[in-house]
Amino acid sequence: MIKKIVVFLCLALFAYAGDATVEIVKKIDVLPKIAVQDASPRNVDLESRRSFFKLIAGDLRVSSHFNVLDDYLQSSYEGGPLENFLSDKKVDMILRFSLTQDINAATANVKLINAKTGVTTFEKVYSITDKKRNPFLAHKIVVDVNDQVGAPSVKWMEQSVIFSRYTNAKKSEIVISDYTLSYTKIVVTGGLNIFPKWANTDQSAFYYTSYSGAEPTIYRYDLRTGGRKSIISSPGMIVCSDVSKDGTKLLLTMAPKDQTDIYIYDISTRKISKITDYSGIDVNGNFIDDDKRIAFVSDRLGSPDIFAQGIYDKSFEKLVYHGKNKNSISTYDNYIVYSSREADSEFGRNTFNLYLISTKTDYLRQLTATGENLYPRFAKDPDTIMFIKQFGNQSALGIIRLNANKTYHFQLKTGKLQSIDW
């Protein structure tokens, strides 16, 4: 029985203002055209300069708030009449950077120029102590430039992504990256380490499940100290699927007696309480409605579906009436994104699509149409969703920008993604 439960959970979690489904779509009739100019000193190698240019141009595109000129342009930092206007390119603004690097650190001087008047409208110096983290330097620049033009915030670009990737049979490692996978840092290795979950909003710690000991154990890993602390163990399986907004409570899926249910765990008191109590499979609990209720996946009506229940109330309700085989879910306030297997899809047996719903309305929005789209996660922003895109034995991180109805993919170079959080 426990093997079937573990297989189900892996399928559910891996195989795969106003009302956010309606009102977050911000219509921008004409996107401003922007050019990116590299004004870096010639002693900075061309590969580093071009890489930084691609990061900035890519971020501007993913923001969905700019029409980005593809040309790699070079200029002086002060600029002359031809460099400050670019009349032949018919652009509205110019983002100019000058990147300098030493052995470890990196600095970028940045200007935003009105290409109609040649006037600098924004200027700032950015620095980072580890030049390997240059992607985050580029993300910060674009976040600020986006704010300067008054577009909806893209601060989510500064968030770190954490994921587990399979490296071999019963072997996986936990990695921290930026959303483009341009920067990656391995933080946990050895054995089977899966289902990482950020512990707090400042992303200084995370939880994960280790299968390296006598029993599956959830650990808390502190990124500031590099130390880890055992939180709780359980026979069969145990997964932390969500953390409360204040970081004090965890939602756990556990099967201490070969039966998966959802529990709430208090970090300070170490008290654990059972929320669901069903003689089938309840997994993947996520807080909703200001942490007063949970949404979760259950087979209590025959096939995997999405339900809601109060934390201290045993009555439940079905949330989704579309499709027959729901999988992983993610929540943001009153909004839920989930992966659903399209058993009758014309695109084949392995099609998993993403859908967005609200707990306050009956509105349903389909987000993908083809392929295996799995394990969706909201950013700290109801307009942006990350998910796993499977290509046979390869994986990519997908980004959906709801307001622009656009999707972007960033391929993982080695390993296969097991789960993600950000």
UniProtKB/TrEMBL annotation:
Domain of life of the source: Bacteria
Residues annotated as signal peptide: 1-17
Pfam families the UniProt entry points to: PD40 (PF07676)
Keywords: Signal
Classification via SUPFAM superfamilies: Tricorn protease N-terminal domain
UniProt keyword Zinc present: no
Similarity remark: Belongs to the TolB family.
Protein name stated in the entry: Protein TolB
Lineage of producing organism: Bacteria, Pseudomonadati, Campylobacterota, Epsilonproteobacteria, Campylobacterales
